């Protein structure tokens, strides 16, 4: 009997040790930092690439993610941020659907003591605290787009802009675009006129309609600057429908596969390439540095570059694209 009792005690002790071990392991798993991520959209390849980079770097850093997208809806994104606050995430990474409207939700996160970071699109609302903003150098991208437009039309002509003024990154792009045109006017006397500036909402169908209206109102238009690839592709469709492919040049910003293919096929004159993988990686690295007590730069800008037809023809991404 004594031997049996000792055996039972041993079994119970082992079970208790294993249970404690599992409990400790579960506690360790749940202690991993959780980052709440709300992107602008997941329907755009830029943000798909951005999300992949965020996930890969988060895994390297030992972070768990709650990843959602506002899908261009400020109210939806506000609810997502409120959910992050309720769940007491360790930090928030945000691509605002509206750079100003999101301010109220960011203030709530600030009040809850949750550090907020932004990627690609900054917050423009007053009285908010953002630890660090990681993005393409959108102002530089706008200036490069203006240079590409001037190159495409031989330095003079009438230009239209398909805009999306609710978003900070686009505001910087159009500001850079206009600043470059104005400097070229003053320094080199180029005869350039921006005759129309319409919002396409950053999406293809709305950009198509805006471009249709623009082409009808200005039949002598020489070029259109589109603030992202969905807008540029909508513009291309409107130009083709109007039978003006031989006259009107298009310059876009992004570098998504469809945009690159359109450059290769001569439908878009040039793209200004962004690098979403670098943005996602650097954003998570900034969060990791901050949580480790390191000082983080308030702004981290990733350079962009001009992508022309000669670049597209040797682009490995398009090697199998028809």
Alpha-carbon distance between the two ends = 81 Å
| Discrete helix count | 11
CATH superfamily of the largest domain: Response regulator
Order of helices and strands: HEHEHEHEEHEHEHEHEHEHEEH
CATH class (first level) name of the largest domain: Alpha Beta
Strand order of the largest sheet: 2-1-3-4-5-11
**Count of individual beta strands:** 12
CATH architectural grouping of the largest domain: 3-Layer(aba) Sandwich
Which helices and strands appear, and what pairs or packs with what?
Layout: H1 2-30, E1 34-39, H2 45-61, E2 64-69, H3 74-86, E3 91-94, H4 103-111, E4 116-119, E5 132-136, H5 138-153, E6 157-163, H6 168-188, E7 192-199, H7 204-217, E8 223-226, H8 229-242, E9 249-254, H9 257-264, E10 270-273, H10 276-291, E11 299-302, E12 305-307, H11 309-313
Parallel strand pairs: 1-2, 1-3, 3-4, 4-5, 5-11, 6-7, 6-8, 8-9, 9-10
Antiparallel strand pairs: 10-12
Helix pairs in contact: 2-10, 3-4, 5-6, 7-8
Question: Would you summarize the structure shown here?
Answer:
The protein has 11 helices and 12 strands.
Could you explain the architecture of this structure?
- This protein has helices at residues 2-30, 45-61, 74-86, 103-111, 138-153, 168-188, 204-217, 229-242, 257-264, 276-291, 309-313; strands at residues 34-39, 64-69, 91-94, 116-119, 132-136, 157-163, 192-199, 223-226, 249-254, 270-273, 299-302, 305-307.
- The chain contains eleven helices and twelve strands.
- The protein is an alpha/beta fold and 322 residues long.
- The protein folds into two domains: 31-134 and 276-299, Rossmann fold (3-Layer(aba) Sandwich); 138-275 and 307-318, 3-Layer(aba) Sandwich (Rossmann fold), CATH 3.40.50.
- The strands form two sheets. A six-stranded parallel β-sheet has the order 2-1-3-4-5-11, sandwiched between helices.
- α4 links the parallel β3 (91-94) and β4.
- α3 (74-86) packs parallel to α4 and α5 (138-153) crosses α6.
């Amino acid at each position: 009997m004594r031997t049996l009792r000792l055996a039972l005690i041993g079994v119970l002790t082992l079970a208790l040790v294993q249970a404690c071990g599992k409990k400790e392991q579960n506690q360790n798993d749940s202690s991993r930092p959780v980052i709440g991520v709300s992107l602008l959209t997941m329907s755009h390849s830029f943000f798909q690439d951005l999300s992949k980079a965020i996930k890969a770097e988060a895994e390297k850093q030992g972070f768990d993610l709650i990843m959602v997208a506002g899908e261009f809806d400020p109210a939806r994104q506000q609810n997502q941020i409120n959910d992050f606050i309720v769940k007491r995430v360790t930090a928030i990474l945000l691509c605002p659907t509206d750079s100003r409207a999101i301010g109220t939700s960011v203030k709530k996160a600030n009040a809850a003591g949750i550090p907020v970071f932004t990627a690609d699109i900054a917050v423009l609302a007053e009285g908010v605290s953002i630890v660090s903003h990681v993005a393409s150098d959108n102002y530089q991208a706008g200036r490069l787009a203006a240079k590409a437009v001037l190159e495409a039309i031989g330095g003079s002509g009438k230009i239209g802009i398909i805009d999306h003024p609710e978003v900070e990154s686009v505001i910087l792009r159009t500001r850079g675009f206009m600043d470059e045109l104005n400097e070229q006017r003053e320094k080199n006397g180029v005869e350039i006129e921006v005759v129309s500036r319409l919002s396409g909402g950053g999406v293809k169908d709305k950009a198509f309609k805006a471009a249709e209206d623009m082409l009808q109102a200005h039949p002598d238009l020489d070029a259109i600057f589109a603030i992202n690839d969905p807008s540029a592709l909508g513009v291309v469709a409107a130009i083709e429908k109007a039978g003006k492919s031989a006259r009107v040049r298009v310059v876009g910003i992004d570098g998504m596969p469809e945009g690159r293919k359109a450059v290769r096929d001569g439908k878009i004159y040039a793209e200004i390439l962004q690098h979403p993988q670098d943005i996602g990686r650097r954003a998570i690295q900034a969060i990791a540095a901050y949580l480790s007590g390191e000082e983080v730069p308030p702004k981290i800008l990733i350079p962009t570059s001009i992508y022309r037809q000669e670049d597209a023809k040797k682009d490995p991404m398009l090697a199998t694209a028809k």
